[in-house]
Amino acid sequence: MVSPTTPTDPGPTGLSLTPGLPICQTDLPLDWYQEEFKPYAEEYLALEDRTPEVVFPWLDSYVQPALDHFGESLLLLAHFYMGGEIVKLVERYGGSVSDSYALALQARAKPEKTVIVESAVHFMAEAVAILARPDQTTWITNPKAGCTMEMLAKDYQVEPAVDMLLERYGDDLTVIAYMNTSGRIKALAGRTGGAVCTSSNAHHVVEWARRKGGKLLFVPDQHLGVNTALRLGLPRERLVTLPDPRRGAFRLEDTAGGLEALDRSEMILWGSECGVHTIFSAEMVRWWQERGWRVLVHPESRPEVVSLADGVGSTQYLWSQVARAEKGERLVIGTEGHFVRNARAEGRRRGFEVRHLAEAGTAHAAAGCGCATMSRNDPPHLAGMLDLLRRGEAPDLNRVLAGDSVDERTGRRDRLDPEERSVLIADASRALERMIEITEAARA
After folding, report:
1. What's residue 292's pLDDT?
2. Strand locations in 47-167, DSSP E?
3. Does the pTM of the predicted model rise above 0.70?
4. Which class in CATH covers the domain with range 150-275+421-443?
5. Which CATH superfamily hosts domain 277-359?
6. In whole angstroms, what is the distance from residue 39 CA to residue 329 CA?
């Protein structure tokens, strides 16, 4: 059995659970909850307030029986980008909070964990499911929790483009799939001899792929692709970006510069981006630097922002900078809003200042609510998921299998048949395992 910590204990990320601290929460309308989860949402909304002193006992009444029931077989997961309430709660109940690379390895690294519950977005849970053993089940607290970047690189959008590129370049094409893609796109990477990457290892993976020769297709974030290429010394003229998928189907000839630009390129970029990180501008970076702040940004930001920042890296890198910050330091972080709020709370606890990059020129601390789709995971979803699992009544929609595609608006799921899923797991696992091999070799 996993015992919860007391409300004043900081978890592994150092987030203080001080009594009286309001829980940051953007409640979903009741009609956004699945029918099975509405009773938990109604109870949560009826609580007298959202402070830990009130929320924790309510949540304990559902989570603790599940912890007792499942014991050491249960694993709770969350991403750094989750709101402070979920990060604190997952840590409180003995779970793990980390970046997408570490999350993907959880099932493989902990074979004794046979019931895995993730409070994050669907592609993260699916990556866990792809690498899981047959006796491990993966569940997501809200199947509608998606990623705008993944939504702009669905299989029905990317596969026609890959078919056209394969027809033109054949085996010379290698697909690099960012972790923020579905299993179906990761399988494309596996089938073309490519690999998956994360923001922390993209430079290692792209460097490995370049040594193979030929052309690279980097899916889906064009800015991470450009920033990675520039870091490796690849000239801008050797990069080309495919048309914006939001404009609908396209031909290769529609690419800026046409087929000649594609033929000259070494790295082809899918034409989408992350809405969270593209709000940042070079002017924001300069504004803070002129006032003596150190600016740290995520590499999904625009290249002009990355080139000016004092530090650039993944969520793991950004949190490591927070963890190492000394008293009196002043940090500005350009990434998802919930992450920055968690970092700000850590700064208050240890005596340094943290601000959000988008607050440049403003007199208030509001910088949006962060990734809106990730925010679809909340305390009622966590309580309901664990209680329903304990009772044997968990909705099948919350079970995550490799290859599942869920419409983030309607919740409608497209599930592959067993034979198709087996093929996808083989291809996607190959791409994920290749990423792991490249990353661990670089670390060694």
Report:
1. 97
2. 74-79, 96-98, 115-119, 137-140
3. yes
4. alpha beta
5. NadA-like (3.40.50.10800)
6. 45
